[in-house]
Design brief:
single chain, alpha/beta, Rossmann fold, six-stranded parallel sheet, three-stranded parallel sheet, 11 helices, one-carbon metabolism, multifunctional enzyme, hydrolase, purine biosynthesis, methenyltetrahydrofolate cyclohydrolase activity
């Protein structure tokens, strides 16, 4: 068997173009405040550039903020609160990772829910709980991107077994990754799909992964998942690209760029799986397209609410 390799660039362009059309049809130009605090992670400036490029492609207005590595919480909180109060700003996006003195949980809690487009604010996450009487307003972009990819490859997980293979090294240090794996991932799936989250360190991890019709891999370990982990014909989605060093740029001779490797060893897995979505190049681009759509939704919803709040009373 030779698996189909499904990448996300074309789907990202389609989602971004749809977002731009919706914004144009709604008569708005979303404004995004994009914040990053300097960190030694070499992917952070790359992601900052990718987000700015995305917003340009979608026709959004961008307010970029680059803060020093020693920025304290009071300084960041004050900036977020000013942006919350600025009616010209539709969405506030803070890139991670953050320096050790800053906690992403406090950051997300400070952003006004109406201006948090990634679906990570507690107000949005709580609505994913079946006990919530409130309808879901915003599903995080990670599972949303996965659903878009499944639609693109023509795979319906209804009635199938879904396994999310995680890395404690990632989930126990990153509360966003932990929430997405344990709460949001299954909120986006059909009710008849059964599933579980399996730490890669579990003694039966390989056996459980091999039972999956749909295996989603989010690891900090390059090429750890090989053919022995895969059910024949399964759909395998590699989510988390890992930085392993630098390599020469193919487009710009003489320039060094980050070298990323996913948790799935694509060559061997492709001999068993039916479809492989690799990392990088698979979920990541689609996440950007999904983010563009959720930014437009947030901007349209927020401005409609503002218009209702400021409308003169009827006689």
């Amino acid at each position: 068997m030779s698996a189909r390799i499904a990448t996300g660039q074309a789907l990202k362009r389609s989602l971004t173009e749809q977002a731009a059309r919706i914004a144009e049809d709604s008569g708005i130009t979303p404004t995004v405040a994009l914040l990053r605090v300097v960190h030694d992670d070499p992917m952070l400036p790359v992601n900052f550039r990718l987000h700015r490029k995305l917003f340009g492609e979608a026709g959004f207005q961008v307010r970029p903020y680059e803060l020093a590595a020693d920025t304290d919480w009071e300084t960041l909180r004050s900036l977020i609160e000013r942006l919350n109060a600025d009616d010209d700003v539709d969405v506030i996006l803070v890139l991670i990772p953050l320096p050790a003195q800053l906690d992403i949980r406090s950051v997300l809690a400070t952003i006004a829910p109406a201006k948090e487009a990634e679906g990570l604010h507690l107000d949005h996450v709580m609505r994913l709980n079946p006990l919530s009487a409130l309808p879901a307003t915003r599903i995080p972009v990670v599972p949303t991107a996965v659903v878009h990819l499944l639609d693109e490859i023509g795979y319906d997980p209804d009635g199938h077994e879904v396994v999310v293979l995680t890395d404690p090294e990632l989930t126990e240090t990153n509360p966003v990754a932990k929430m997405v794996a344990r709460i949001a991932a299954f909120a986006a799936l059909p009710p008849n799909a059964s599933g579980c989250v399996v730490p890669v360190t579990h003694p039966r991890a390989r056996e459980l992964a091999r039972s999956a019709d749909l295996l989603v891999v989010s690891l900090q370990r390059p090429a750890a998942v090989t053919a022995e982990w895969i059910k024949p014909g399964a759909v395998v989605i590699d989510f988390n690209p890992v930085f392993v060093g630098f390599r020469p740029s193919r487009r710009h001779p003489g320039r060094q760029v980050p070298h990323l490797v996913g948790g799935v060893e694509v060559e061997s897995v492709s001999e068993v799986a039916g479809v492989v979505v690799p990392a990088p190049g698979g979920v990541g681009p689609v996440m950007l397209g999904a983010l563009a759509q959720q930014i437009v939704t947030a901007a349209v919803t927020r401005r409609a609410g503002t218009a209702r709040a400021t409308a003169p009373p009827r006689n």
